[in-house]
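Researcher: Go.
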Amino acid sequence: MKISSEKIKKSAIKTWKNFKKIIPVILGVFLLISFLKTAIPKEFYSKLFSGIPFFDSIIGAVLGSISAGHPLTSYIIGGELLDHGISLIAVTAFLLTWVTVGIVQLPAESSILGTKFAIARNIVSFISAIIIAGLVILILPIL
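Model: Structure:
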């Protein structure tokens, strides 16, 4: 199967356009993280998270649920949280809910898909994030 140079050119242009759209988001996240690193002392994180895996996963899931974000930027924020000593289970729950649960988007989602469906989807995603975060912690040492 031969790929034409015209298709490659179109793909490259499309990729570049998408990349240009993502650059401001990534820069915004870097600026936000820099601000948070300066404004929020490291002791705040140790007070926020208990060190008990179950409670940390719930706290991480709640924070991720109310913080809507782009999946690409979630990895950067997750890495920063790990660097601040947040447990992997909390960061995993945070990342999963950051991408799958949308409290901020709930009104728009409700109007498009229906209130019952939107609420049910968010609840299932929230609970699933906590379960998956726990499974990651259990399975990771085996790998």
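Model: The chain has a mean pLDDT of 85.
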